[in-house]
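Suppose you are handed a protein chain with no further information: no name, no annotation, nothing but its sequence. What can you learn? This example shows the usual starting point.
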Amino acid sequence: MTPLIPDGCIVAVDSSQTDHIKLNGKIVIAWHKDQGLTLSRFKHYNHTEILEPENHGYESVTLSAKQRWKILAKVLCWIGKAP
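A reasonable first move is to predict its three-dimensional structure. Written in structure tokens, the prediction is:
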């Protein structure tokens, strides 16, 4: 299965969009001081927030104050080369 956003794509983001309620189901850029950046789908279930990678070879991350992930931006679009 090919990834939703293949390697080498240019990604356009909006860093003003960080409201967790409005980002539910959207692809976001999140940052962790030890793990760096990730592009993942942000999901909000009742009192639980999850970063769910489109690549199912990676584990989902449950967000909490202890995890220290920060949502930096909403992904607007991406551009890549045609196959």
